[in-house]
Every structure is written in structure tokens, then in C-alpha cells.
Specification:
It contains 13 helices and no strands. It is mostly helical and about 300 residues long.
Length: about 300
């Protein structure tokens, strides 16, 4: 007897909710940004102007909003603009932050994954504890720690290691310290989720074959945690590229990143089209590491599925 199949509205609803969320809070705002990036404000106070000619029906797109990002107004040279410098500086600091988070976060994640099951919830809570306080409060706390009369300088002068304060605030070091501190949990958590599922019998087999602990770690543990490394790296790198608050509060005048440039163009110069063009290019730069992330996570899922 043939069985009748009926549609499953519950399943479709569950799938439709995240898609609706992405369309409403990501795709629609992005399309608005893309629209404004081609607008010619021409001295108007608002950027929401039509980009088509009502009489001819042709689009009037101002490509100069993008061209000014890559071409210098002084000598006309490509890739010699302050915007390109801000992009490169943002990518460099984001890479440094991701590497520092990986170097510091991997031992943390490994220790939590190898601790007793009863102690793991408390250790994970300690990792997530900073999220319970305000983001701005945590950044301002580092200003108090690294200032000329801050905690670190006072301690160094108290023990006699220095005779006068060392400038640590508003430098590259202070900005990297703040960014590493803020984004460290985003590295620890995916690494822990990957390491806790690793089969320890593989390590025992490597020891039985005569390998040293370091060789076992490098040849067994690290390759098996590749998916966690990539996920943590992307979770740190992507938001660090567009970071605005930490460079503004802890960085110096030479540490201007693209987030600050977008802010200045939009709220100081009132040049919304160029600011949105900068944001669109930044999103395009972020899509590349996202594609790498999904590539590696897809490989991991295929491997686990085959296993």
C-alpha cells in the first residue's frame, strides 16, 4: 500500500527563521550600503538620493566613490592612498592579534580539554567571565593599567626596575594587548570544542611507537585540531579587521585602522558615499577569509561523515 507524503511545515519554518534573520539584518543593510556607495551627494545633507534618471531611465552611478579609495588625488598613482594604508594596517594588526590569540589560547584550550570533566565547566566559565562586563569598561581598564602612572609603571618603579615611567599607552603594544585580551575567548572556545573530542588513544599509540611528547603534539594533536585552529583564527581575524573602539582608546595617531577611517568619513566629513564604499570593500576583504573558513569546515565535516 502506497504511503502518502505530506510537507513538513515545522522543518521549513526552522530553516526559514535563520534565512529571514540573515536577509533582514545582513543582506538588507548591505544592499543599503551598496546603494549609498554609488550616490552622488553633491553637497546634500542626506545620502538617500535616486541613482537613476527619471527621464532617461538610466542609472547615474558615481564610481569615483570607489576610485578614490585606490587612486591618489595628488599624483594619480594606484594603491598609494591613505585608505589602502588603513586597510593594510588593519589586516596586519588583525593577523598579529589572531597569531597572539592562537599562541596564548592553544595552551589554555588544551589544558581545559585535558582537565577532569568536573572541572571543565568552572574553567570555561572563567574564559567567558569577561563577557559579563562591559566591553568599554574592559578597554578603559587597560588604559589604567598601561598609563604612565598606571599599575604596571607603578609596580616597576616600586621594585626599582625603572626610574621613570615607560610609555606603554597609545603604542602598537598597547593596542595589540587590548585586542588580544578582548578576542582571546573567541580563540579558546573553538579550540576547546575541537580538542575535547580528540581520541586520546591516538596519543597513546604514538607514545607506544616511540615518539617524543613534542613530536606527538606536532604530528598528531596539531593536525587533528586543524579545524579548531582555522575556526578560532577566523573568529578573531574577521572582527579585528574592522575594530574601532580599541585602536581609538589604546592606539596612537599612527595606528589609524579602517574602522576609524570609516567613522571619520561618515561623521566628520559627512561623506556617506565614500564611507559606505570603504565599508563595502572591507566586507569584500572579509569574505575571502570566510570562504577559507567554510572550505576547511566543509573538509572537516566530509571527513567526519566518511569516518
Amino acid at each position: 500500500m502506497a504511503q502518502l507524503s505530506f510537507p513538513m511545515p515545522g522543518r521549513r519554518f526552522v530553516i526559514a527563521v535563520p534565512y529571514a534573520w540573515l536577509v533582514l539584518f545582513f543582506l538588507l543593510p548591505f544592499l543599503i550600503l551598496l546603494y549609498i556607495s554609488f550616490v552622488d551627494m553633491a553637497g546634500d545633507i542626506h545620502p538617500f538620493k535616486p541613482i537613476w534618471d527619471s527621464t532617461t531611465g538610466l542609472l547615474k552611478l558615481k564610481y569615483e566613490n570607489y576610485g578614490s579609495i585606490f587612486r591618489s588625488a595628488d599624483d594619480g598613482l594606484l594603491f598609494r592612498t591613505i585608505y589602502i594604508e588603513a586597510y593594510l594596517r588593519s589586516i596586519w594588526y588583525a593577523l598579529c592579534t589572531a597569531v597572539l590569540c592562537l599562541v596564548i589560547g592553544y595552551p589554555f584550550a588544551y589544558f581545559i580539554a585535558r582537565s577532569s570533566p568536573s572541572a571543565r565547566p568552572a574553567l570555561l566559565m572563567m574564559v567567558m567571565l569577561p563577557f559579563w562586563t562591559s566591553f568599554l569598561l574592559r578597554v578603559y581598564a587597560w588604559k589604567g593599567i598601561l598609563a604612565d602612572q598606571g599599575v604596571v609603571n607603578q609596580m616597576l618603579m616600586a621594585v626599582g626596575l625603572i626610574s621613570e615611567p615607560i610609555q606603554m599607552l597609545y603604542t602598537n603594544i598597547s593596542m595589540l594587548v587590548g585586542m588580544t585580551y578582548v578576542y582571546l575567548p573567541f580563540m579558546v572556545l573553538p579550540l576547546y570544542a575541537n580538542l575535547v573530542k580528540m581520541d586520546v588513544r591516538l596519543l597513546e599509540a604514538a607514545y607506544d611507537l616511540g615518539t617524543t611528547p613534542f613530536k606527538t603534539f606536532w604530528l598528531v594533536t596539531v593536525p587533528l585540531s586543524k579545524a579548531g585552529i582555522v575556526a578560532g583564527f577566523m573568529l578573531v581575524f574577521i572582527p579585528a579587521v574592522g575594530e574601532f573602539v580599541i585602536p581609538s582608546l589604546l592606539g596612537g595617531p599612527e595606528n589609524i585602522m579602517i574602522g576609524r577611517v570609516v567613522w571619520d568619513e561618515m561623521f566628520t566629513s559627512n561623506n556617506w558615499p565614500r564611507a559606505t564604499a570603504l565599508a563595502v570593500v572591507m566586507i569584500a576583504l572579509i569574505i575571502v577569509p570566510l570562504a577559507i573558513y567554510y572550505h576547511y569546515t566543509g573538509d572537516g565535516q566530509d571527513a567526519s561523515g566518511k569516518a
